[in-house]
Design a protein that fits this description.
Layout: E1 7-10, H1 16-23, E2 32-35, H2 37-43, H3 46-53, E3 58-64, H4 68-80, E4 85-89, H5 94-106, E5 112-116, H6 124-129, H7 136-149, E6 154-156, H8 159-169, E7 174-177, H9 196-201, E8 206-209, H10 211-214, H11 219-231
Parallel strand pairs: 1-2, 1-8, 2-3, 3-4, 4-5, 5-6, 6-7, 7-8
The structure holds ligand LLZGTKA7.
The ligand O=c1ccn([C@@H]2O[C@H](COP(=O)(O)O)[C@@H](O)[C@H]2O)c(=O)[nH]1 binds near residues 12, 119, 178, 179 and 209.
């Protein structure tokens, strides 16, 4: 059964062993997990098998960005391994997104396919430095529209943009939001952050939480505090 919780815990660990030690403390009925570039590059598909075997729904966060044919093949490979969600970069463009979506349809694969808009670690000045002369909010909006027109299920954005995207793209269009920081937790490299409560109030569909739990002195206590914050919404 799918968990009703919006929490997705980012298993950003340098080994399969470390990731599974964390996963073994989590309850697959109470959260989903995310496998990113570091863990997948080290452990490969074995980590997906191990997490699926433990009953978790897995978001494979590899943020594909390549020519349409290559991305379509990568998305198919991910979906055939049974992941719940997979993503690519919206900046790869409409043809790339459509090719990936069409491949999943052709193969009758029901994995959620979403697109990263503007990384939550980026602010306006960093966008400007790569030649994008609009605010993160405006650029997220532009890429979310393109993603929706390409037929994907939703986007990765910051919770700061979720409310606007909710009115622009509707409730069913997924807003998956990393950059979640409880009030007392360091922001680190993240720039566009929100607290768990504010992120949900803004219309996020799912909250991606990594270091506030995984790097906490007591990860299970940190997770319980986030769950409690969400319950008192
Ligand atoms: O825009 C994005 C896209 C993906 N991420 C990923 O989410 C987690 C966040 O981890 P924290 O430790 O809670 O900062 C991490 O795996 C990123 O690769 C993101 O942060 N922003």
């Amino acid at each position: 059964m799918s968990p009703s919780s919006p929490l997705i815990i980012a298993l950003d660990y340098p080994s399969l062993h470390a990731a599974l030690c964390m996963a073994d403390q989590l309850d697959p009925n109470r959260c989903r997990v995310k496998v990113g570039k570091e863990l997948f590059t080290r452990s490969g598909p074995a980590v997906l098998e191990a997490l699926h075997g433990r009953g978790f729904e897995v978001f494979l966060d590899l943020k594909f960005h390549d020519i349409p044919n290559t991305v379509a093949g990568a998305v198919q490979a991910a979906a055939e391994q049974g992941v719940w969600m997979v993503n690519l970069h919206a900046s790869g463009g409409r043809r790339m997104m459509e090719a990936a979506r069409e491949r999943l349809e052709r193969e009758r694969l029901s994995t959620y396919l979403i697109a990263v808009t503007v990384l939550t670690s980026m602010d306006e000045s960093e966008l400007g430095a790569i030649g994008i002369d609009e605010s993160p909010a405006a650029h997220v909006e532009r890429l979310a529209r393109l993603t929706q027109e390409s037929g994907l299920h939703g986007v990765v954005c910051s919770a700061r943009e979720a409310s606007r995207l909710k009115s622009l793209c509707g409730d069913d269009f997924l807003k998956v939001t990393p950059g979640i920081r409880p009030a007392s937790v360091a922001h680190g490299d993240q720039r566009r952050v929100e607290t768990p409560r504010d992120a949900m109030a803004s219309g996020s569909s799912y909250l991606v939480v990594g270091r506030p739990v995984t790097q906490a002195e007591d990860p299970m206590a940190a997770l319980a505090a986030i769950e409690a914050e969400l319950e008192t919404r």
